[in-house]
Amino acid sequence: MNVIYERCCGMDVHKKTIVACVITGKKKEIRSFSTMTASLLSLVDWLKDVDCQCVAMEATGSYWKPIYNLLEMEGIPALVVNAQHIKAVPGRKTDVKDSEWIADLLRHGLLNGSFIPKREQREFRELVRYRRSIVQERARELNRIQKVLEGANIKLASVVSEINGKSSRRMLDMLAAGCNDVQAMTDKALRQMRKKIPLIEEALYGFMGEHQRLMLGLMLKYINFLDAEILSLDQAIQ
Question: What is the model's pLDDT at position 147?
């Protein structure tokens, strides 16, 4: 088979260790490194010393990211290879053999790397994905609030379109604070919501216990926290 890379490296990346095999001509050298930053820097220095042309790594999860970031910063081409493409072959039982096999495949151009976006796009994706998870958690917390209200036979969600809208939120804050005056709460309705005051008064009439007020108050505080997190992420994404 044709040799594509005279000097290349195959890596098997795990949570705590990295086993790297460097091939330079007919010579192979295998070393193990920890995934701590100082050790990763030593790995990169070694690759630079041997003038490594390309690196391929088999990795799962997100363990490949720190080493990939360092290689990218140093201008060393790197492939992150789907483990299914280089699944275990007979006799390849250890991580050392894994890294050696990856290096051999890379040397002969038999590996296809997964698409890895540019660093800026990877960072953007992380922010967007985290924001999505916070939005989902906020939705779950709003569902919990609805369950507390249902438990107290308060049917506000049946009357208003958004349980966390401005008008609804002002009423919920009063409920959590211990208010039992339905008229005082409905007086917090804003704009178009005021047309529904009779219905809202009926919906707010229930039996809310102290433990339910406590839970409601804590849930509303958590919603405030999540709203602040989403705003912060929005600014970072922008």
Answer: 95
Closest by CA position to 220, among listed 158, 162, 176, 167 = 176
Give the number of other CB atoms < 10 A from CB of residue 216: 22
Map out the domains of the chain as residue ranges: 7-116, 120-237
Is 2.40.10 the CATH number for 120-237?
no
Provide the b/e sequence for 175-187 (b: ≥16 CB within 10 Å).
bbeebeebeebbe
pTM for this one?
0.76
User: What is the helix, strand, coil percentage profile of the chain, to 5?
Assistant: 55, 15, 30
**76/116 Cα distance (integer angstroms):** 14
Q: Which fold has domain 7-116?
A: Nucleotidyltransferase; domain 5 (3.30.420)
| pLDDT for the residue 85 | 66
pLDDT at 86: 64
Q: Is the pLDDT of residue 95 over 70?
A: no
